[in-house]
Each structure stands twice: as C-alpha cells, then as structure tokens.
Amino acid sequence: MRARHRIAGAAVATALLAVLGLVLAAPASSAQLVEVTGFGTNPTNLRMHLYVPDGVGSRPPVLLAVHYCTGSGPALHSGTEFASLADRHKFIVVYPSATRSGACFDVSSPQALRRDGGSDPVGIMSMVRYVHQRHGGDPERTFVTGVSSGAMMTNVLLGDYPDVFKAGAAYMGVPFGCFATTDGSSWNSQCANGQIVRTPQQWGDLVRAAYPGYAGPRPRMQIWHGTEDSTLRYPNFQEQIKQWTNVHGLGQTPSSTDTPQAGYTRTRYGGTGGTAPVEAISLQGAGHDLPRGGMAAETIRFFGLDSGGGPTSTPTITPTVSGPCQVGYTMNAWNTGFTTAVSITNRGASPVTAWSLAFTLPAGQTITGAWNTTITPSSGQVTATNAPYNGTIAPNATVTFGFQATHTGNTAKPSAFTLNGAACAVQ
Predict the structure, then answer these.
(1) Collapsed DSSP state (helix, strand, coil) of residue 220
(2) For residue 226, how many other CB atoms are within 10 A of its CB?
C-alpha cells in the first residue's frame, strides 16, 4: 500500500516540478513562507506553513492549499502558482503537511469523514481558525484547493465543514467517502480505479451524513481531471460531479458547456456564469499531472479572488425585524438571465417545518432550474418548497436556496414574500 502511495506521489511531484516546469521564481516581495507551531488541536501531528503576502488588507481572504502524496506544504508552495497569485490578489495561503509514512492525508477513516471526528481534518481546521484569529482572515472568503491526495481532502473538508469553506477546487481527486475503509488501511483500490459508481443521491447522502442536521449553504465546487489519469482514474471525475450537483440540489444536465481552450471541456451546473455552484473541467489526454499552465489562476477566478483581494464590506447591524420570518434575495443578472440566492430566517420562537415560500416573479422572468428547493410553477406567482434535507428551520436559524431564470429585460425583485402563509420582512 505504501509503495503505491509513493509511486503515485512521486509521479505527481515529478510532473509538477520537472515535466511541467511549475517551479516559479520567488515572489518579488519580502514575504516568506514560515512554519507555524502550536496552532491548536492537532491529533495527527500535521505541520503548518503559512504565506502572508506584503500588503494584505485588514480582512484578507484565506486559501488552504493541500499537497499530494509524498509531497509537503513547502513543495506545493514552490511548485504551483498559488503564492504568486496571492502576491497579486492579496490573500493568505495555508499549506498543511502530512507527516505519516507516504505523506498522504487521511481521507479514508471514519474519523476523517465526519465533522470534528478526529484525524487530519481536525488539525487542518485548527490551522484555519489560527489564521482567522491571528491574522484577521475573512471567514466569508475562506477556500480550499488540493492536488491528488489533497484533492480528496478538499472533498472531505467541504463535506465536514460546509459552513467554513465558501468553495473548493479539486485537482485529480475522488468524491467524498469514495476512499472510505474500515480495516485501517489508507488506500482503496476500487475507488482509485474508478470502480465505485453510485447514484447522485447516494453520493450526496454521504456528504450530508458528515454533518447531520446542517441546513445552511453548501460550498461551490470546481473539479479538474485528465482523461488519461492512471492513478485516480477518470470515472472519478463524473462521480464527483454527481455528488456535488446533488448536494446543491441540481440535476445532471449542464447549464452550459464550452471549450475554453483546445482539449478542455468545461461544464457548469446551476448557472452559466463564472461562479456556478458546480464547475467541471475535463482535459483530453491529460494524466495525473495537474495543475499546470494557468489552471491555478482559473481556480482563483472561480473563488472570486481575482478582483483585488480587498476586505469585504464592513458588516452592518441588522435592525430588529418584526414578524415571524425574514427573507434575503440577491440577484446576479446578465443579458438575458440571472441567478438568485434566497435566504429564509425564522424569527419566531418555534421551529418552522415543511416550509413553503410564496412570491411573485416580475413579468418576463421564467425559472429554468433550482437548487435546495422545488419551485412551481416557473413564472408568475410561484412557491418554493423545502428539499428532503432542509425542511426544518429552527428559531433564529436560516436556510438558503437558489434558482436560475431568464428575463426579457425586467430584472426587478419580488416585492413580498410569505412563509407558510405568514408575511416576511424583506432584508
């Protein structure tokens, strides 16, 4: 087992550092990669390295970058573009390092596959909290990416801690739970060879079981895989798509498909813009040798970190809201379409169960797809009802859903909302 890990990791390291020539010159700044010790609970003795660029703002974004088998945080720092992109866009990069034989991360044990269950995810979360507390990292702009074993960990962290990470990007990974074992081993040959095939619902249920009862928003996901990957074989690409579209309440039909460059096929689900809930890029003829070229920059674009890296707006105090509920409604419109994120907050003293939110879409707007809800009909006076996993809203809790729609020029918002027949305040 360990030999297989070493071979896979060595292939990645060789491809990343030699064949693809991704060893970059040191960033043109005084910032240095530093090791941090004593960062918090760390049951598996992971190491932590931190890169803080010169000139970061008071609430900088945070990127967790997770290495491949036989690798390390410093190797990923020097062998990918994330540090130079951090200099340009002013975000902090956290690099964990696995210290067990083979230097693979634990994505297999029952402890790793549940929130706060133990093993590597707990130590990694201590690193993230350390950066939030010591460096003022922005909890609303915290992201994770990883390569091979690190891509598997990206899937695991998004499942275990959906409230911490706003998005993830997995290079050559496998779905959450695919590598699970119960015999203490860390290698799952069936999964690695692409032989584990499940329904979208089954994959989604594995993610939801990692944090039972969680009904908040789920992180967006970007997935990269080469068709000729012989270490973590290509069927794992489609299985990840099935998993994360289901987690977002989406179907398997892409909202858009394009070819951003020769040999690349990109599909987006739940939206056609650059921040769709799920984005998947298949690379014809590529092996286990990603990221390469400008892929890291595309991940930073997907995360929304390429727009200056400044702090988020100063939080405002939400006024006291009378009534049993409050609705937030945020639109992102383009020429003939838009996506909308909707939040429902229960301001009452009792749980809301089997929720139903009614509102009227302005003229010319027609819903074409939705996630975390079912909406009927597609235009006019519509009703959004809960999904099977988010039907209860506890007092002072919030659930979110979203939808994609077309418009004929009218991008106005609904003026009123009712939750189970009661009028809601509009945020």
Answers:
(1) strand
(2) 24
Fold of 325-426: Immunoglobulin-like (2.60.40)
For the question of whether the overall pTM of this predicted structure is more than 0.90, the answer is no
> Which of the residues 97, 126, 148, 282 is marked catalytic?
148
What strands lie across the sheet with 220-226, from one edge to the other? 33-36, 47-51, 92-97, 62-66, 142-147, 167-171, 220-226, 278-283, 264-269, 256-258
Strands, E assignment, 193-302: 220-226, 256-258, 264-269, 278-283
Phi/psi at 267 (nearest 5 deg)? -120, 140
Average pLDDT on 179-197 reads: 91
Which residue, 92, 147, 98, is CA-closest to 123? Answer: 98
Least confident residue range of 28-32, 61-65, 270-274: 28-32
In the residue annotation, 379 being an active-site residue is answered as: no
What kind of fold does domain 2-303 have according to CATH?
A: Rossmann fold (3.40.50)
The share of the chain scoring above pLDDT 70, in percent, equals 89
Question: Is it true that 2-303 and 325-426 share their CATH fold?
Answer: no
Tokens at 280, concatenated: 């998947």
Give the mean model confidence (pLDDT) for residues 390-410.
Answer: 87
Nearest to 381 by CA among 399, 365, 400: 365
pLDDT digits (tens, 9 = 90+) for 318-345: 333 346 898 988 876 767 878 788 889 8
What 3-state class would DSSP assign to 382? strand
Domain ranges of the chain: 2-303, 325-426
Residues 12/148, Cβ–Cβ less than 8 Å: yes
Gap between the Cα atoms of 26 and 51, Å rounded: 12
What beta strand segments (E) does 100-174 contain? 142-147, 167-171
For the CA atoms of 390, 391, 397, 403, what is the dihedral angle to 10 degrees?
60
| 124 close to 93: Cβ distance less than 8 angstroms | no
How far is Cα 360 from Cα 339, in angstroms, rounded to an integer? 16
pLDDT band at 399 (very low <50, low <70, confident <90, very high): confident
**What is the residue-averaged pLDDT of the chain?**
88
How far is residue 72 from each of residues 25, 76, 112, 170, measured CA to CA in Å? 18, 6, 19, 17
